[in-house]
Amino acid sequence: MQQFISLVIESGRTGLDMALYILLPIMVVMLALMKLLEAKGALRFIVNKLSPITHIFGIPGLGVFAMIKLLFVSFAAPIPSLLLMENGNTSRRHIAATLAMVMTMSQANASFPLSAVGLDLGFALCSSLFGGLCAAAFTYYVLCRHLANNDARQNVPPSPTPSDHPSSVIQILVAGGQEGVKIAIGMIPMLILALLLVNSLKAVGAIDFLSTFLAPALGFIGLPETAMLPIITKFIAGGTAFTGVTIDLIKQGLLSPLELNRMAGFVLNPLDIAGVAVFATVGKRLGSILRYAVYGALFGLCLRGILHLIVF
Predict the structure, then answer these.
(1) What is the reported pLDDT for 167?
(2) Of 59, 126, 189, 236, which is most buried with the most CB atoms under 10 A?
(3) 245 and 83 Cβ atoms separated by less than 8 Å
């Protein structure tokens, strides 16, 4: 019992440190900037310019909103766009392509904090776009070619009215910052519980067993045995817990920035147990194409992962 209490305290301390000193400032700044861009119409302008291009890959205008929110806010930020697609007249084929893209790309709540410890953020964003577009196209043209394709008339939501946002720039930034605080604080319980689970697995020797068993496979792609810990954490507990564990390992000198960039193409995405569970609750139409989106995302992640291994 005493050992368990120690694990709880250690996990809580690490989780709070990550949430308050890394995630919180990044989320506040990014949400404030995104809120300002949205209120001033810049975000809609970007979407209108990109939509004709992304439509080729099976991604409608709302999908572009989802892409931007994922890359610069958090993995949960695309959910409102997915809800609009679910409840509107967007075809299931377009929804599947959009979801495959979302599950392939890097979420801001993981990529931006990791950039502080050596992640090549620029390359991670570029590989996200490459992998996401490939996943969307593969899902749209191959996996879902049998689905009805009734294009939505309104893929981009109407422009926000002045009442939708605070009037002054300061008010807009403050409102965005407050949303960032809510996201960061909301991550704390999951982060602590995930870290506790991982620390418990370490304590009973499960992580060491898997690391030894999979060491040849990790060595083949140039990763040390210690990389197994954040990889397992990511697929069990999600990107936030992965970020916390990875930052802790890098600070201890057990994982290098180069090794982080090598595995980033495979693990820096919302395709995990927690992420899929969240997306599955959006609605019935999305749930009906979830498996196609997962297959498409796996295709895109293979391409992303290989690209990172080649470059790094």
Answers:
(1) 66
(2) 59
(3) no
Domain span including residue 197: 2-311
85 HSE (CA, 13 A, CB side): 33
Q: What is the pLDDT of residues 238-297, one digit of tens each?
A: 787 788 889 888 988 989 999 999 999 999 999 987 788 778 878 888 889 999 999 999
Distance between CA atoms of residues 307 and 312, nearest Å:
8
* pLDDT at 159 (0 to 100): 43
Beta-carbon contacts of residue 294 (< 8 Å; ≥ 6 apart)? 100, 103, 271, 276
Q: How far apart are CA 312 and CA 305, in angstroms?
A: 11
Give the amino acid at 299. F
- The residue whose two tokens read 């196209």 is 137
Domain count, the chain: 1
pLDDT above 80: residue 215: no
pLDDT exceeds 60 at position 198? yes
H or E element at residue 159: none
Residue 91 has a CB neighbour count (10 Å cut-off) of 21
Residue tagged 């989320």 (tokens): 27
Name the token pair of 148: 């009805």
d(CA 206, CA 198): 9
Distance CA(104)–CA(89), nearest Å, equals 24
